Amino acid sequence: MPIADEQAYPVIATRIDPRGEEFRGNDAANRVAVDKLRAALVEATAGGGDKYTSRHKAAGKLLPRERIELVLDRDSYFLELCPLAGKDVAGHTAGASLVGGIGRVSGVECLITASESTVKGGAISELSAWKSGRLSDVATHNRLPAISMIESAGADLPNQSKIFVPGGRGFRDLTQRSEQRIPTICLVFGSSTAGGAYIPGMSDYVVMVEKQAQVYLAGPPLVKMAIGEDTNHEELGGAEMHSRISGVSDYLARDERDAIRIGREIVAHLGWKKGAEPTPRPIEPPRYPAEELLGIASPDVKVPFDQREVIARIVDGSRFSEFKPLYGPTLVCGWAHLHGFPIGILANNGVLLSESAQKGAQFIELCNQSDVPLVFLQNITGFMVGKKVEQEGIIKHGAKLINAVSNSTVPAITIMTGASYGAGNYAMCGRAYAPRFLFTWPNHRIAVMGGKQLAGVLDIIQRDAAAKRGEAVDEQKLGVMKAMTESMIDKESDPYFATARLWDDGIIDPRDTRTVLAISLSAAYSRPFQGTTSWGVFRH
Length: 540
Description:
By secondary structure, the chain is an alpha/beta fold. The protein has 22 helices and 15 strands. Strands 1, 2, 3, 4, 5, 6, 7 and 8 form an eight-stranded mixed sheet that branches. Strands 9, 10, 11, 12, 13, 14 and 15 form a seven-stranded mixed sheet that branches. The chain is globular and about 80 Å long.
C-alpha cells in the first residue's frame, strides 16, 4: 500500500471534554490505579529482599536485573513480561523467581530471561515453570533468539510434585527451538543443578563464569550418597572443568561482565534478520495526547466509553479507516498504522450482536487476505442474550467470529481495556486463543460474568429448586450464599488475581499502550507470516 494511501486515512475527530465531570472523575480514579500498579511493580523488583540481595552483592555478583541491563544495547527498551506472576499467591513472590522480557542485544530483538537468584537461590516453583513456558512461547511464536541467564538451585524440592512433570516442557522447548533455528544462548553465573543442568546442556551456546558457575546433575553431597565418591564443586561441575574437559561450556568468562560481553558477541555473529518487514512508512505521532486515556477509560466496567477515542491516541496520526461504520456498530473495525506497522483493529463499543459478530469475522478474513496483523481492544460483557437474538441465530453468528479468530494466521495482539466476560473473551482473542501478546489495563475485570449477575443466577436456581421440592426458601442462608459468591467473583475477576496466574502478559499503564503495541508488533515481525483463506465450516 503506497504512503499516500496511509495519509489518506481520515483523522478521528475527538469528542471528549477534558474539563467535563466524567473525564475528571475517570482521570482521578485511573491515576490512583496506576499508582497502585507502579507500587506493585516496584515490589516485584525487590527479589528476595534486602537480606538476600545484600548477601548476593557481597559475594561480588550482579543482581539479575543488573545483568539484563548490561546485556541490552545502550538505550534499548525492555518490555518485561508477566512481572507480577505469583503476586499474593501463597508460597510465591511477585515475579515467580524469574525475570523475562524482550529487548535489543547487538541490534537484535531477543527474549531475555534471568533467574531471580535472591529468591530461594533461584529455585523453580510451579509458577516459575508456567512463566518460563509462557516466555518460551514468546520466543517460539515470534522467532526470537533467547538469552538465558542462569543461577538456579533447580526445582523447589518441597514442591517437586507440582513441578516435576510440567517442568520437563522447558527442555523440550529448548531443543525444539534449536531445531527451528532459533538459538538459545545460556550464560551461567552460578549454580545450575539437577534438572537445571539440562538448560545449558540443551542450549546452542554456553558461557560459564570462572570460579563461580557450576553445572552438575548431582552436587557433591548427593554424589557421596549415591555412589560413595568424594568430590568437590569445581572438579565435579566447575566452569573450567566444563570448558576444558567435558565440553559442556563453549566459552570460559573471567567474570560476570565478561560473560555478558561474550553473550553480546555471540548475538552479533548470528547475522540475525527479521522474517518479515512492513512497507516502510513515515511514523506520525497521534494527534491527541496519551495522557487523555486516563480520562477516557472508565474505572467502572459497567460504564461504557468510545473505543475510537482510545484508537485516536495510539495510532499514527490518529488516522483510522473504519470498515462498515454503519453496520454492527457495537464492534468497531478498521485499518490504521502504529509506528509504521499496518494493523487491523477490532474494538468493542458494546455487547456483541449478530451483525457485529458477522462484521468482525469478515474483517478478520480481509486482514488475513492482505497479511495485516490484528489488534483487539477488549471491553466486552459478552454476546447479547434473549429469545429474539437466539431465534435470529446469535449462536451461529458468534461461532463464525470465534472460528475466524481461532483460524486466523496473522499475528494478533490483545489489549484488555475494560471488561472481559463470558464468550466475549473468546471472540475478542483472549488468552485461550493464543494472541502473540496480551496486556491489560488496571481497570480490567475478567470472569464468566459479573459477581452480581452470577449471584443472581444462583439465586434463581436455588429458588426454582426449592419450589420443585415444595420447600420454603431459607432467605437468610440464600442471602449469605449470594454475598459470598459475589465477593468471591469480585476477588477472582480482579486484574491482579489474573496477572498473578499468567492469564495475561502484564498490567500496563494505559498511556504506555502505543509503545507496548509497537514493541509487540516489532517482535511479531521477526517471524515470517502469511494470512489464511482456510476457515473450516461456517454455519449459515
